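Q: Structure for this?
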Amino acid sequence: MGLREVLIPQDRVFFDLFEELANIVVEAADLLVRFTGAGLNPVACCPQMKDLEHAGDLVTHRIYHHLNRTFITPLEPEEISRLASVLDDVLDCVEGSVQKMRVYGVEESDDVMRQLAKLIQLSTVELQGAIQGLRELKDAGSVSARVIEINRLENLADDVLGHAFMDLFKTNDPIRILKYKDIYEELERATDRCETVANMISDIVIRHT
Amino acid sequence: MGLREVLIPQDRVFFDLFEELANIVVEAADLLVRFTGAGLNPVACCPQMKDLEHAGDLVTHRIYHHLNRTFITPLEPEEISRLASVLDDVLDCVEGSVQKMRVYGVEESDDVMRQLAKLIQLSTVELQGAIQGLRELKDAGSVSARVIEINRLENLADDVLGHAFMDLFKTNDPIRILKYKDIYEELERATDRCETVANMISDIVIRHT
Amino acid sequence: MGLREVLIPQDRVFFDLFEELANIVVEAADLLVRFTGAGLNPVACCPQMKDLEHAGDLVTHRIYHHLNRTFITPLEPEEISRLASVLDDVLDCVEGSVQKMRVYGVEESDDVMRQLAKLIQLSTVELQGAIQGLRELKDAGSVSARVIEINRLENLADDVLGHAFMDLFKTNDPIRILKYKDIYEELERATDRCETVANMISDIVIRHT
């Protein structure tokens, strides 16, 4: 990496852009946690969430655009484009979950939403750290620890979802079940996508060390 | 590309096969638009749709088979096999949506189906153009414009789906909601898959220019 | 491969690990068939299924770990990590389906579950064979025959699902539909994932022969 860094420092811009995208993902998760917290209407964050999703799309497009104009990249071009795409997927799930609340007219969060939002937030912070770790590809150990933690959080989210379904079906209200099941699943999917990103970062570190 | 074209013109067959597959995808979307149009039973197109899906599978297998016997390919072997697979996914979603109508006994299309069918059709025509653009890998600009348009159409489909869900839940009829939600989502998924193909073509163009 | 085998026989460990993982997947499918068989409560196999899923995760992590420490691998590093990941997905779907039965309080299997379990079992045995075939990358014909068979089984599972949905909606019981639809779809997804693995093995064989 030494020679490459000296010759083409401008390629470091990819890491800047990934960190920028990760920051937006964390910001969206923070927003979700704040608005699913007691007392707020989660749907009220829709406009801000839409802005974050749009900001994420712009960064993703800048990554593609820069890739288009750069001959020597610090990672494989395909790694860069796929990583941008899956990071963007996390953002889409977070945004998608509040959109579903809006569409279904759910104006109050419940404990399940709060718990899942918290797990998403913790996962995105780990992702942010793992992405910062990409810049120095030597630190495989720290990235690996974060990947394991994200796996653990995803398993927790899975458990939360299982218990939530049990409670939900006890209501015996099919319309309510249809709505909440969809929202819970979208929230849980966000933790799945975090795991996908984590595994991809792990693969990248493996290939480059 | 010049030398390669002279030496191994037979490899152009991959582009012929991709165009053939894209034509089938467009044909399936046209069929969907025609049969979700006013007055026709959409389920009546199932046999023709099944034939198109089968024709698509055959082309996909010919792509794999040809890949198996060709040493020098115009794109990476993995790019070729993945592109064939995701293009086939679009066809599966289109066919899947009329299969769902059949299974659920939905014999009349509604406005949502018509709107989504139209968006699918527009997306597949853009895809067809992007695939023709693969042959001449220099024209990244035109491919990029099509990718942006497909993104726009996918966002529109997303909006249609949101409004459709709001209306659907107003019926308060859980069985109806279960059926139509499933069909609408499968239709919207077709536009998602078009976006996946578009992004993959965009990646290929980036890597080869 | 000859020279490589002499120089780095320790790399054969990847094939050992893949076979170990495939054996666990087959074991999970066998367990599913046994417990969806007449007279047993399928939920009763949850603890054993969880153990198998955990065993699968450990093998997957050993594959990643070994990849991390090996400079010359018999397949591309990315092929190895992705194959491990999709094989693990099959296991997750099988485990997920009995978890869903548990969550939904479904303590008796029906014919649909039995039929899908059988199709999953047949698919995993084909997968096991295809993975054994990876060791000798020359035998593309035999792998290809297994891929075609797995495709056929997946189509059968699709038909079973279609008929199951028709019967299920006849009950007109939305809660029951919600539960069983989810379980059936998870079972069918296991055959989809088998197809994904099969296609990936097929791609690997194409690239290495």
